[in-house]
Amino acid sequence: MGRRDYGLDNETVRAIAADVGDVVGTGVQVCIVIGGGNIFRGVSGAASGMERAQADYIGMLATVMNALAMQSALETRGVPTRVQSAIPMSSVCEPYIRRRAERHMEKGRAVIFAAGTGNPFFTTDTAAALRAAEMHCDALLKGTQVDGVYSADPRKDASARRYEQLTYHDVLANDLAVMDAAAISLARENQLPIVVFNIHAPGAFAAAIRGEGRFTTIVEQQ
User: Fold this and answer.
1) Is the pLDDT of residue 46 over 70?
2) Nearest-CA neighbor of 185 among 168, 163, 170?
3) Residues 116, 213: one domain?
4) Domain containing 78: what range?
5) Burial of 112 from C-beta contacts in 10 A (0-12 / 13-18 / 19+)
């Protein structure tokens, strides 16, 4: 969304694609779960009176639009990319097939997973943890609005404390708003480290992959 109130900001899309391209260029296998809140949020739709499941399906379709935009930006940079949707729509992308996604990644392609889990009531955070577990990923990186996990929103609370490292239990017990509880629990069950970094900082994705820069890690034990 960038600085826009709604929709796609091409400059932001290109910037994220550049960061992803830099990481793929190092030989790291990358798969991406992309949200749709810049177009439609199911929770907001439900709050305005729409039936929740229907609102969530609309939100899933929004993620497909974003995935196709990101695919275009990545391929413009020469990064081979495949989009797989949890809701089949074969005219524009592949259906989600785990083993096919693994083969794409082995061949150096970035895979974008669209439409969340394909089910209402589950966030794209949960979809990210699910796909990361299915793909046997070494880590789940969440690109967010700030450079890690804070005790409160640092954009609203100047006294918010930034954490370098947390445990899954810390996040759940303190109700830290980094990912929803289902996503954290799924990552915990699969011993999947979570790395939270600022998606808007150029090069932060590659830096986090190298263990550099500012980010927060969430693991089983500190």
Assistant:
1) yes
2) 168
3) no
4) 1-137
5) buried
